[in-house]
Write a structure and sequence with these properties.
about 50% strand; mainly beta; two-stranded antiparallel ribbon; 16 strands; two-stranded antiparallel sheet
Amino acid sequence: MTNCQTCTSSTTCSTCATGYTFSSADVRCNLNCLSNQYFVTASNTCSNCMANCLTCTSSTTCTTCATGYTFSSADVRCNLNCLSNQYFITASNTCSNCMSNCLTCTSSSTCSACATNYTFSSADVRCNRNCLSN
């Protein structure tokens, strides 16, 4: 058996060679990968995790994103965490500020919560100051 240090039979390994770990799923000794890599069974090699991913099990499955990032199953990547007064831009993996007087938003034209004394107007796509009544 390849990469086996001690065998109990021609198909059973009891101790893998240094740098290898026994996989009961593959029934063989697989190469130990770094924490930011995953094992590719077909080529018996390690491959790097996606950008901003600390640990992963495949090219599309991140188990731990880097600090300041969150895994998005929709985008299949680790996206930057934006501040509450910012929204995420998928294409550039960046954050952008909400419109003036907007506390939280989902895009440049969609405000989820305007500042105190302001109300969102879909007609002119902004938070307008509330008029005071006498």
